[in-house]
Amino acid sequence: MGIINEDSFIETVHMKGLQISLIASGDGTEVIYHKLDPGTRWGLEPANGSGVLEFFHILSGELKYKKNNQINSLKIGDVFYKSPVKEHYVFYADQLTEFIYVSSQPVFHHYSTISKELEDLAISIEEKDGYTVDHCSRISKISMILGEKLGLNTSQLFRLSLASFLHDIGKVKIPLEILQKPDKLTSEEWEIMKEHSRYGREILENTGLPTLIEAAKIVEQHHERYDGKGYPQGLKGEEIEIEAAIISIVDSFDAMTTDRVYRKGRTTKEAFEELIRCRGKMYNPDILDAFLELKEELIKI
């Protein structure tokens, strides 16, 4: 858009739907340029320390966010300022949007190292598991639509956004001969495969980043079942985090309707029928009902 001279960038990182570029840093303060593609979400989490400043100025496009069940909009020239941020905020760009973000604590390298590495890892795992490169993004997008329909608060949406994209990251520790086996797994192989949800929790906890540590619990639970017959802990009903219950449904739907190396995907009609058959068994009935109400919208994604 020509608003920022890219020669002034110290470092740039590209992630799915997002470009972030460090413009300046010093004394712990960073100035970061953000460019969000249409349909991309971006969030702020509560800051550590009473004196932490978070500020951004919209250069182009528009960011929307929910506050007290009201949709707020930030347009060109608008600013958002908190010192400190005391709650989670999830912003949504429905058009190409640019803004300058200023933080009094160094945050850029969390993006450029851990976040980027985890994103690349998640995508590579899904490709090895027979999915397309868009699988992670699709799971995240649908999960967020469902989470918003269910009225999740901003903290829950923030965790859901991270956990849905990284839900299968623990598969990096599963041997490829098991992950890519075209035939039915043996009982011993299946026990190894089931460990990926625990591995995912461990990987995210080991980053040391508070937001990923919060998402780790959800990643671990995304294969729990409403009737208590899931794994790894055998949780049931309301013992399962709502974000994990959402991912369970969305991931199942996407898995059923996706062509894999070893099988053809089901039709959306067949997938919906299978979900309904498992209502109250594998899936939380209230969440599934909300998902089914989105049927027409989901078919277009």
TrEMBL record:
SMART domains listed in its UniProt record: HDc
Pfam family name, one? HD_5
InterPro entries associated with the record: HD/PDEase_dom, HD_domain, HD_GYP_dom, HDIG_dom, RmlC-like_jellyroll, RmlC_Cupin_sf
A molecular-function term among this protein's GO annotations: transferase activity
Signal peptide feature range: none
Q: Which domain of life is it from?
A: Bacteria
Xref: Gene3D superfamilies:
Hypothetical protein af1432, Jelly Rolls
Residues in HD domain copies = 132-256
Q: Which UniProt keywords apply?
A: Transferase
Residues covered by the HD-GYP domain:
110-301
Specify the protein name.
Putative nucleotidyltransferase with HDIG domain
Task: Please give the organism.
Answer: Cytobacillus oceanisediminis
